[in-house]
Amino acid sequence: MEVISTTNGRSAIEIIERTPDLSIVLMDIMMPDMDGYETIGKIRQNAAFNTLPILALTAKAMKGDREKCLNAGASDYIAKPVNTDQLLALMRVWLFR
């Protein structure tokens, strides 16, 4: 797997738009400039990315956060600290749909 990383939402959108063979996105919710909710929303505005799996990762594991991520357009949600086995299992589910 090739990993492409960035530290803010605007850059994430640019990377997604110029990487047509992208398989999955791990989106941190707490980012500077543009948070993950807004970034996911902007990604989903482009019909070409409607089926791109986006997994939201957040340290804000409070009641309602999962629903907020899904309502923003995330495909699924995982809380930090991330359990590696759980993350890999979730990635397998979304990569092979």
- Taking strands numbered 1, 2, ... along the chain, how are they ordered across the largest sheet? 1-2-3
Element-level helix/strand string: HEHEHEH
The backbone outline, from C-alpha atoms, is globular
Helical segment tally? 4
- Derived structural class: alpha/beta
| Span of the ends, CA to CA | 17 Å
Cα-atom Rg, whole angstroms?
Answer: 12 Å
**What amount of the residues lies in strands?**
5-15%
SS elements, strand count: 3
Q: What share of residues is helical?
A: 40-55%
Low-confidence stretches: none
Determine the mean pLDDT: 93
Can you put this structure into words, describing what you see?
There is one protein chain. The chain is of the alpha/beta class. 40% of the residues lie in helices and 13% in strands. The mean pLDDT is 93.
Search tags:
97 residues; alpha/beta; 4 helices
Q: Which secondary structure elements does this structure contain, and how are they paired or packed?
A:
Layout: H1 9-17, E1 25-28, H2 36-45, E2 54-58, H3 65-72, E3 76-79, H4 84-95
Parallel strand pairs: 1-2, 2-3
Helix pairs in contact: 1-2
